[in-house]
Amino acid sequence: MATIQIRTRIDRNLKKKSDAVLKGLGLDAGSFVSMALTQLVNRRGIPFAVSESDAGYFASEYGLTSAQSVKAGAAMSRDTARARRTGKLREVTELADLAP
User: Fold this and answer.
1) Which residues contact 60 (CB under 8 A, 6 or more apart)?
2) Please, which of 26, 47, 83, 97 could form a disulfide with 88 given CB 3.0 to 4.6 Å?
């Protein structure tokens, strides 16, 4: 199999920390990049969750500031806790919980 060289720039501290983790796994950065790209091709998508922060989502979707999104998140947490206490929130922990 023919190989090519990929050059990229990353933060020095990130490289140092990631090398330590990879070493513990018995890998190097090149092997990891190959594994990640293989999974990208096999899955036809990024092989791990990529999501916007809650604050970023609230800002782009609803036009909320960071402070407003924190307040909205706290209100949602309170509402969820209240619904759980009053039995209005149905939790699914096993397949039988889905039966009517």
Assistant:
1) 52
2) 83
